[in-house]
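ok so heres the complex, two chains, lmk if somethin looks off
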Amino acid sequence: MSAEVICVGTELLLGDILNSNVQFLAKELASLGIPHYYQTVVGDNPTRLKEVIEIASKRASILIFTGGLGPTPDDLTTETIANLFDTPLIERYEIIEDISQKFAARGRIMTENNRKQALLPQGADILPNPSGTAPGLLWQPRPNLTLMTFPGVPSEMKLMWRETAVPYLKSQGWGKEVIYSRMLRFRGIGESALATKVVKFFELTNPTVAPYASLGEVRLRISAKTASEEEAIALIEPVAQEIQKIAGLDYYGSDDANLATVVADLLKQAAETVSVAESCTGGGLGSILTSIAGSSDYFRGGIIAYENRVKIDLLGVKTQNLEEDGAVSAIVAQQMALGVQQRLGTDWGISITGIAGPGGGTITKPVGLVYIGLADSQGKVDSFECRFGNRDRDIIRSLSSYTALDKLRRKLLAKKLGM
Amino acid sequence: MSAEVICVGTELLLGDILNSNVQFLAKELASLGIPHYYQTVVGDNPTRLKEVIEIASKRASILIFTGGLGPTPDDLTTETIANLFDTPLIERYEIIEDISQKFAARGRIMTENNRKQALLPQGADILPNPSGTAPGLLWQPRPNLTLMTFPGVPSEMKLMWRETAVPYLKSQGWGKEVIYSRMLRFRGIGESALATKVVKFFELTNPTVAPYASLGEVRLRISAKTASEEEAIALIEPVAQEIQKIAGLDYYGSDDANLATVVADLLKQAAETVSVAESCTGGGLGSILTSIAGSSDYFRGGIIAYENRVKIDLLGVKTQNLEEDGAVSAIVAQQMALGVQQRLGTDWGISITGIAGPGGGTITKPVGLVYIGLADSQGKVDSFECRFGNRDRDIIRSLSSYTALDKLRRKLLAKKLGM
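and the predicted structre for the whole thing:
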């Protein structure tokens, strides 16, 4: 018993719209514990749609359609379904009534082409649409095959799913098993390096553990399938604990946590404040820190020192070091961090200076070379050299800001844990 | 001859991620004139993936895969393809070389599991991946069937598509009838207001004109379908000219132009410099200004004055005004703009102070109230009151930064045109 999603619409094949419906349905099916192995998109073409339904109905027992229920001639989902299962379309009086009333409520008259939306295959049930004009169908054209159709407009589809499809699916016994997941998040370690450390968990079957990677971050998803959320958590928790222990400081948070929220929590717990001195990121780190509501509790401000003159005048960077070591150097990063920490009177000062490219690189200082400085209120200052490689300017700048944030996180966490 | 897109990844079936890759590919295929009738999503399961490839290879002559090229055991696309076409996988020395070099450039060592990414079916060509570690394959396992694989990470996939797949497809004769478009971009006017002004163009058939709206911006897409780019431009140009004339200062640029590039060009033409003083945006405006390579020509830096103390100490904002008018007021925005313009010695100073929410709003100063200050080197300073409404913090901050940039753009443009 599994479900399959079929999205109908030439606009999806042209790339005019992003298919957010299928992501919504995928999440919903997972939360109801309904297995779902394929998603298909097909245009407003009855021959191809028919072929897609034939293939899907051999693989799955519940077919969920979105799109093609409108009043115009290119809306073909219902008639293609009826045609495939050799069943006549019948005009439903109650749908005509309902559509007329909805039009009347909006002060409009139902047009002739809306009558098309009242046609359903003989024997099919109406799947009510609480917000839009057209209902869907709920139909078993043969044993062990249930079809459900939804409009393509996301707001209508979602409301209809929640109000009419979910109650039906639950009445059929679904939703008794839940799939519950936790996403663990890591920084400062590559996907393959982390995978090597935790490889044994990939063999597990319940919960399962799977790795994902995105820019500068690796994630492990732990998923359990059980009768209740409590049981799922009981399965997930020990695995999560063990992985977190293995990963040490590289693990930074789970689920909706991000580096900014994690650093915010650590700073609030320590009742400490931070300020930033930014060169190549131009304010990006400050922007990330202030993306969190309530960031005024721990963020005071910063200096965007893009030009050397600003580094000298507002941060106290030494002209000699700018000349001898260059603006992109460990010593300048240290002076920037210390300068902003002192001038703004914060517990921490973080600085970033680097070559974001595409120009400005040399053999000894290539594009992607970035120094991060981290100063504390005792005047102690560290610096970190990062080599992000000759990548896009945006990527280098983003990696610079998040790496700087991660350096502060590690420092705060190590201090908290007494390491 | 048609193409088909197959996206591989259990995370898509679980609804963890929105499938933006398929929308990108759909648009690209349309612009190359390659017909494309089906999109399929399947999980990291070799049996099901094999079945999907078998079905697709009967319907289409170009199969485009995304996902499943990573180094971990659940990345199965390449081996499933090889297996289906009964072809052994061969380790490619040049891929090992390339991956090792990429790891080295980032100061990391290639791990053993990355070797998996160097395996390609015998006879397949390498489809180079300019940014990520794993390349794809380009392979004709039998006449009239071409397979192309891409990683699932959107930034990698897109770069790889543009740099390696498009040249290949063009060499195969695709893209001869071109759909050529120009996107005109507008700020400071709503979609319906702009549509009303240019409604007559919506009737055109070649080129066509269609409106799009996104946060704070309206776009008009002018598309022509012709045999050559020159012919298309000849159709598009007069329409674009006429629309730009109607829109006046609300039109700011076309195609890849964005507010930052437009302001950059205007500042460079005028040989003028700018600095920023940011409160609620926390560095977001500086970050946008420095997103452009070469921004050191006109951007000197700024002060992130999140806390009032920083506004007083580093920008010279008057304590009296902070107390009487509040930090979110026209007068404080003016003092901030003037303060940063003077302290950094730039031609222009822009400031932003506002209530980004979700907390901090009052009846007289609700969430979404933002003041923008704009000072010039003659000591003249303007301020602008914006009411962005009780929306998401991120949205209010983004609208604030872009509106500030747009105020500078209008000022620079008016000056340039002698208005």
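quick notes: DSSP finds 14 helices and 17 strands in chain B. thats all i got rn
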